[in-house]
Amino acid sequence: MLANDRKLIAVMVSLKREREAEVDDDDSEDGVTAKIGRGRVVEDRRSRHCPYLDTINRSVLDFDFEKLCSISLSHINVYACLICGKYFQGRGLKSHAYTHSVQFTHHVFLNLHTLKFYCLPDNYEIIDSSLEDITYVLKPTFTKQHIAGLDKQGKLYRAYDGTTYLPGIVGLNNIKANDYANVVLQAFSNVPPLRNYFLEEENYRGIRRPPGDIMFLLVQRFGELMRKLWNPRNFKAHVSPHEMLQAVVLCSKKNFQITKQGDAVDFMTWFLNALHGALGGTKKKPSIITKAFQGSMRIFSKKLPHPDLPPEEKEALLVTEEYQEQMSESTFLFLTLDLPTAPLYKDEKEQLIIPQVPLFNILGKFNGSTEKEYKTYKENFLKRFQLTKLPPYLIFCIKRFTKNNFFVEKNPTIVNFPITNVDLREYLTEEAQATEKSTTYDLVANVVHDGKPTEGAYRIHVLHHGTGKWYEMQDLQVTDILPQMITLSEAYIQIWKRQETDDDTNNHTGV
């Protein structure tokens, strides 16, 4: 009982402190306005004539990190000091922000939740249109007209720090070892229907989730990251995905971390499915994820007798119903392409030769006739695949890594692929060939893995739709790149856009 009492007391104390912090923020006492008779409100005359606006230092302002008080670590009633950039809780007489303003004579603060500006210790609201650029950086907003024009122009914008940048082609900070996640986030931010959906918060604000469901945090954080990446009025030409990645760590139960290198395909698989579920999507109910990426295929599967059985037993089993070919229909969000086995032994001359394979060779897996053996713990199956529906955006995952109990092995084979006009009609069933209008795709994103399997690095090539130019991004580094250089890399994840999908995908702003 004593332990329970202590817990109860601790909870009550915590709640009391939170209430006090909220009371500290009450405007009615000594803040912005004064109420005079019959509910009339009079504005503080100092609100529009604050003498401290020229002390604001925009170069230190960074709203990409978690909104926590730097002293109490509380996320309730947090204010940013616009002179030093630090975060503090409350603004009442005993609050951390108040104390900071007195100690360091820093007077201008921004409430990170209400987006209101205050002068401390005098505690009045500041109303001045010159501060709008700060609130826009904290919370960028996009109109339908702005979103519709994103892919029609390639105007360079100048950040507050003087660097020029293209919205969307913006570096992501590598906090420690999160480049595997950065490249996936960059790839998705350059898929127009997905980007457009998340740029407009109205699209998903009304989605109802069960109480205690933390997965919707992923949706909110991804939307915030999209708006920061495409913000034409940034203070700096890069973004830190800190809050987005914290949501990833929390929602994946630490399967994906900031401090430990992960696999980009594993992360992408989890992220797509997690977003689909958090947006209320199910197997039958679509979401923006399935609208953009989901295709379907037929799988023909045939069980194989155990290889150690005598030949006559094998023949007897092959005529039974259990060993006949079965057909099933399945949806997919991406297609896995298998590389041919790399040579095991190389002499001195061959050491310099990196094996190469055309993209169409490894796409042969889906032509309906190529068979491949799949082994499970107990049974072996022979499978072949054929596509029945192509999505507006098609993701390829090139299987470079083979994992076993002892080590991870990487296949360095280079895949030769054209950047545009990849026609997939021959991989569709006859019925699908008759109904699919366009089966030709152009590359829009190419994720590359360099180096050793467990300690390599990731980079990404993306097409900027407005300029038609290709860019390479590796964490904070952004450089333009010639299209012919892209095909020389060890491609790992690719996103292809169907050529005639503009009409289909631009209206994917609602689920």
UniProtKB/TrEMBL annotation:
<keyword id="KW-0507">mRNA processing</keyword>
<dbReference type="InterPro" id="IPR001394">
    <property type="entry name" value="Peptidase_C19_UCH"/>
</dbReference>
<keyword id="KW-0597">Phosphoprotein</keyword>
<feature type="domain" description="UBP-type">
    <location>
        <begin position="48"/>
        <end position="145"/>
    </location>
</feature>
<keyword id="KW-1017">Isopeptide bond</keyword>
<keyword id="KW-0832">Ubl conjugation</keyword>
<dbReference type="InterPro" id="IPR013083">
    <property type="entry name" value="Znf_RING/FYVE/PHD"/>
</dbReference>
<keyword id="KW-0479">Metal-binding</keyword>
<keyword id="KW-0132">Cell division</keyword>
<keyword id="KW-0378">Hydrolase</keyword>
<dbReference type="GO" id="GO:0000245">
    <property type="term" value="P:spliceosomal complex assembly"/>
</dbReference>
<keyword id="KW-0862">Zinc</keyword>
<keyword id="KW-0131">Cell cycle</keyword>
<keyword id="KW-0539">Nucleus</keyword>
<dbReference type="InterPro" id="IPR050185">
    <property type="entry name" value="Ub_carboxyl-term_hydrolase"/>
</dbReference>
<keyword id="KW-0747">Spliceosome</keyword>
<comment type="similarity">
    <text>Belongs to the peptidase C19 family.</text>
</comment>
<protein>
    <recommendedName>
        <fullName>Ubiquitin carboxyl-terminal hydrolase 39</fullName>
        <ecNumber>3.4.19.12</ecNumber>
    </recommendedName>
</protein>
<dbReference type="InterPro" id="IPR038765">
    <property type="entry name" value="Papain-like_cys_pep_sf"/>
</dbReference>
<dbReference type="InterPro" id="IPR028889">
    <property type="entry name" value="USP"/>
</dbReference>
<dbReference type="GO" id="GO:0005681">
    <property type="term" value="C:spliceosomal complex"/>
</dbReference>
<dbReference type="Pfam" id="PF00443">
    <property type="entry name" value="UCH"/>
</dbReference>
<keyword id="KW-0508">mRNA splicing</keyword>
<feature type="domain" description="USP">
    <location>
        <begin position="170"/>
        <end position="499"/>
    </location>
</feature>
<dbReference type="GO" id="GO:0051301">
    <property type="term" value="P:cell division"/>
</dbReference>
<dbReference type="Pfam" id="PF02148">
    <property type="entry name" value="zf-UBP"/>
</dbReference>
<keyword id="KW-0863">Zinc-finger</keyword>
<comment type="subunit">
    <text>The U4/U6-U5 tri-snRNP complex is a building block of the precatalytic spliceosome (spliceosome B complex). Component of the U4/U6-U5 tri-snRNP complex composed of the U4, U6 and U5 snRNAs and at least PRPF3, PRPF4, PRPF6, PRPF8, PRPF31, SNRNP200, TXNL4A, SNRNP40, SNRPB, SNRPD1, SNRPD2, SNRPD3, SNRPE, SNRPF, SNRPG, DDX23, CD2BP2, PPIH, SNU13, EFTUD2, SART1 and USP39, plus LSM2, LSM3, LSM4, LSM5, LSM6, LSM7 and LSM8.</text>
</comment>
<dbReference type="GO" id="GO:0016579">
    <property type="term" value="P:protein deubiquitination"/>
</dbReference>
<dbReference type="GO" id="GO:0008270">
    <property type="term" value="F:zinc ion binding"/>
</dbReference>
<dbReference type="GO" id="GO:0004843">
    <property type="term" value="F:cysteine-type deubiquitinase activity"/>
</dbReference>
<dbReference type="InterPro" id="IPR001607">
    <property type="entry name" value="Znf_UBP"/>
</dbReference>
<dbReference type="InterPro" id="IPR033809">
    <property type="entry name" value="USP39"/>
</dbReference>
<keyword id="KW-0833">Ubl conjugation pathway</keyword>
